[in-house]
Design brief:
Elements: H1 4-7, H2 10-17, E1 23-27, H3 31-39, H4 47-58, E2 67-72, H5 74-77, H6 87-93, E3 97-101, E4 106-108, E5 116-118, H7 124-134, E6 138-145, H8 154-173, E7 177-184, H9 192-212, E8 221-224, H10 239-253, E9 260-263, H11 270-282, E10 289-294, H12 296-306, H13 313-330
Parallel strand pairs: 1-2, 1-10, 2-3, 3-6, 6-7, 7-8, 8-9, 9-10
Antiparallel strand pairs: 4-5
Helix pairs in contact: 8-9, 9-10, 10-11, 11-12, 11-13, 12-13
Amino acid sequence: MATMAETQTLEEIARALVAPGKGILAADESDGTIKKRFDSIGVESTEENRRAYRDLLFTTDGAEEHISGVILFDETIRQASADGTPFPKLLESRGIIPGIKVDKGAKPLAGAEGETVTEGLDGLRERLQEYYELGARFTKWRAVISIGDRIPSDYCLWTNAHALARFAALSQESGLVPIVEPEVLMDGTHSIEESYRVTDRMLQALYTELFDQRVGREGSLLKTNMVVSGYDASEQADVDTVAELTIKCLTNTCPSSVPGVVFLSGGMSDEDATARLNAMNQRGPHPWELSFSYGRALQAPALKAWGGDANNVEEAQKAFYRRAKFNGAARSGSYAPEWETAEVA
């Protein structure tokens, strides 16, 4: 008998991922990234520790109120909860849609010093079929775009856009909703105006390629950076400026037929990621749902509270639920910054 997820169309799944009040948990950290996270709390990055930590997040009471889907890593989609339930089945039983990161990471782009292209297209069709059987119903592929001296080049932007579109077409062929993620990194001294210019160029290239490669926009989602100042810029744009320029950029580039945009947190603080999303939704309604697909900005308080100690699971889950709730409120523009310092929120 087909499960509910199997009888849904790509458009229905895409819309469910950006349902009102909900967003996506990005729990697809690579081995290297999760090791850095665990190093920060003095915990060894073993398979069992990684499993226990993800189990903590996925079994948090009430998480499904604000989390529509979870992006898993190859290791994680094959793991199970403490009671033996495979993670995809656990998530699905709670009304949370399992997804999977399928790219193989950014590698140096030939002939373009300082720029990268994301690899992973070889054998992707077969991997997608396996992930579908394991329970995944959506996928994610990330391109990494740096701003620096005379970069990014058009060569870099279009090569990554082409790969994103090939990934998206293969995903839809396999019955999976693709989340296309071109991330313009915050690293650098660039102004918010430069961030706008590069993000605009990247998204123009992306949607040209998606159209040319026959990707159904109604059954896909965009995951992208907000338009922000570089980390080391002499002047940091305020929340209102970020909201206004990000919406302007999307209006110019993202087709209204795309059900939603799920922003990455990309090195922003927990509070900034929530406040900026909130400010954008206060300016609605928009043609697309404006939601979140946060990793560190959802997990950081929980990771710190857990510290690798099973005795701290309940406190860590409370911390995770709290951030999920705040971001759920930001989906409707009803988040209040003073909640951050309230004892109970």
